[in-house]
Amino acid sequence: MKINPLNKSALANLCASVEKPNYELSETSSAIIHFGAGNFHRAHQAVYCDTLLNKGESQWGITGVSLRSSTMRDNLASQDYLYTLAILGEETRYRVIGAIKNILVGPETPQAVIDKLAQSHTELVTTTITEKGYYLAEGAIDQSHPDIVNDINSLAIPVTVYGFIAAALIKRAKDSAAPLTVLCCDNMHAGGQRLKDGVKLILGVHSKETLPWVEKNVAFSSSMVDRVTPSTDQTLIDTVAQDTGVYDNAPVSAEPFTQWIIEDNFAGQKPPFDKAGALFVNDIAPFEKVKLRFLNAGHTILSALGYLAGDKYIHEALLRSPLAQFTEQALKLNVLPVTSVPSDVNGETYIDDVLQRFRNSHLPYGVLQVGTDSSQKIQQRLFPSIDDALSNESDCSYLAFALAAWVCFVQKASDSQQLNDPLALNFAQYIEQGANNDVYDFLNLAGASKYSLFTDNTFMASVNEYYHCINRVGAEQAVSDFLTD
Fold it and tell me: Are 125 and 35 contacting, i.e. CB atoms less than 8 angstroms apart?
């Protein structure tokens, strides 16, 4: 039986269980321009906008901008830019999203992007372009990168997000002088400032006279986003078609959980995202710390222990009672006491929710995938909590065990040629040189010498003791023994 494609006319043919827009698509407009209309954006920010549209806030539709490929535009244009969100929990729920009004492809129509950004009707510019789209090197914008060089030399055909925004601000300042907010929606510390630095760099070359106007009329803000969004494959496409009764070229899936913490710094009209569940705050840094120390640290701990226990996925590791108990107690007994949690967040509840999310077998996290680049990640996820615990004379025995497990993980994954880490070759050389009995070398290579934990002899001795215990009896038994001591 032929299945009709998803578009406006097919909405009436959707299964009754599928949630769909309660607004007329033709009666909404796009006051938001978004760079990077990929899966995460479509499963996160666009859903918040769709909720606003469903509440009658008709101006908060989105014009997407692709800086590279036309694929998403090509997939969605024939569908009237409608797509299906599959929410993967104990039961799969479906929702058709209509928030995206159009997608422009920068290399094809650069002036159309600039003109849309410059329109006074545009109130908000947002970005999910991943870290590489910010062209950073050693914490600053890499002015030698060919794309940055292109935009420094000419704004006739911008390549970077900085170039497009700068070109638009030059035009906007002359045409309407309407205020504008630029909001980073990538999980990047001080992402708003990064965007501001890049735009000012380009404007400083092409239009210094615009800079004072930008300082007064353009806000650059940051946000923290959280929702797991897997890549779309043919299995998802076929399942969505079977379950909804229409064929969608580009469905997207996500976990039930979603979070958006937004810096309350706007220069013009502010979208009422709080009506859709987002949280406006004066400072997002405490929320970033909570995510790093609980969600990300929990992931890292389970990745190492799960791999050592022979598990492929994080949710499998949590089926092992000792590993689940250890991770929960590490976060609640070692990390929580030394972490300032915002008043909007209940620390213990947040930890419980994180572990429940990790148990979702419908969205499996591979232990090796989570363990990618772990030598860099533990510098943010574990070391600061340990230093805080040591300075407060607070218990950090769980974290000492977690570091020992991490060293064992690195050694085992390296021996199996499964270690995906920028320091993989260095670790392999240590192992070849017979450094298997020395946790110091591995932790030093991972940057531990920059933290006070490295010179705390008592702490490091406990890491070394737990390391030998794991090697002697295995990870799961070592965890069990630790919990019963």
Answer: yes
Q: Which of 20, 94, 82 is nearest to 51 (CA)?
A: 20
pTM given for the model = 0.89
Structure tokens, 161: 């997000």
Give me the amino acid identity at 243.
Answer: D
CA distance 175 to 252: 38
Confidence of residue 437 (pLDDT cuts 50, 70, 90): low
Look at the alpha carbons of 307, 381, 353, 86 in this order and tell me if their dihedral is positive or negative: negative
Decide if 339 contacts 386 (C-beta within 8 A). no
Distance CA 485, CA 481 (A): 6
Query: Closest Cα partner for 118 from 65, 167, 60?
Result: 167
Q: Tell whether the model's pLDDT for residue 344 goes beyond 90.
A: no
Question: Alpha carbon of 266 to those of 53, 125, 181, 280: distances in Å?
Answer: 20, 11, 6, 11
Helices (H) and strands (E) in the chain, counts: 22, 14
Q: Does residue 435 surpass a pLDDT of 70?
A: no
Distance CA 289, CA 295 (A): 10
Q: Could you tell me if 95 and 20 are in contact, meaning their C-beta atoms sit under 8 angstroms apart?
A: yes
Per-residue tokens: 58: 């008709």
Residue 171 token pair: 């035009």
Pairwise CA distance, residues 264 & 47, whole Å:
20
Pairing of strands 252-254, 62-66: unpaired
State both tokens at 336: 């929580």
Closest CA to 83 of 23, 35, 11, 13: 11
CA 259 to each of CA 252, 347, 401: distance values in angstroms, whole numbers, following the listed order:
17, 15, 31
Instruction: Give the model's pLDDT for residue 56.
Output: 98
A 10 A CB-CB count for 374 gives: 25
Q: What tokens appear for 198 in the block?
A: 């890049």
Please say whether the structural domain 8-282 has been given the CATH code 3.40.50.720. Answer: yes
- Give the model confidence (pLDDT) of 243-274 as tens digits: 999 999 999 999 999 999 999 999 989 999 99
Q: What stretch of H or E contains 311?
A: none
- CATH code of domain 286-484: 1.10.1040.10
Q: Give the mean pLDDT of the chain.
A: 96
CA angle 90–93–97, rounded 5-degree value: 145
> Running DSSP on this structure, what letter comes out for residue 230?
P
Give the separation between CA 210 and CA 420, rounded to whole angstroms.
Answer: 45
* Neighbouring C-beta atoms of residue 107, cutoff 10 Å: 14
The residue-averaged pLDDT of 119-133 equals 95
CA separation for the pair 352, 347 (Å, rounded)? 9
Q: Token pair of 458, please?
A: 């008592």
How do the domains of the chain map onto residue ranges?
A: 8-282, 286-484
